Amino acid sequence: MIHRRNAAITVAGFALSAVISLSTFTDYYLNGLWEYQWGYMARAGIMMQLFYIYSLLTMVYGIIMFARRNRVEADESERVKLRLLVFSIILFFQLKLGSIPAMHGIDFYPLGNFAFIPLVLMAWGMYRHDIISMNWSSMDRHDAAVIGIFILTEFPPSDNEQEYGALQYGERVLA
Fold first, then answer.
1. What are the helix (H) ranges across the chain?
2. How far apart are CA 89 and CA 76, in angstroms?
3. Residue 92: closest CA among 109, 116, 110, 70
4. Could you tell me if 165 and 103 lie in one domain?
5. With a threshold of 0.70, does the pTM exceed it?
6. 13 with 77, same domain?
């Protein structure tokens, strides 16, 4: 999708990403916390503002690239895949941008916390339409690995039986 004429835009995007990434550990990116009734939210700094603009431009650029590809694509199944990806990306960015009000002091629950929904849709589409061309014989091992990783990240094992005993562990999960 990215050709020689888009190389300058791609290189500029990588350079800007590198500059923004250098600021993430400074007060120019996040400079404190807002306290709300539902919890805490980071306070956006000037580099976070730049990142918002950059994210919006990246989304627009990606949509343009997908639209160009969709226009020249002859295979209808490829067009369905592209439309599904574009829909998921747009929904993801809209939800992530829903965190902006809370990061600027407006008491509005950040919709970015629901960004997993389009990611699940994208994963389903990739699985359903075989976008990454996985070997079907390895699918069972792949599914088992994904489930195992999910279980280990959500419910990590602990050496401290007092803290994570059977009853306390169940209460922690259900709370």
1. 7-22, 46-72, 76-97, 100-103, 116-128, 139-154, 166-174
2. 20
3. 116
4. no
5. no
6. yes
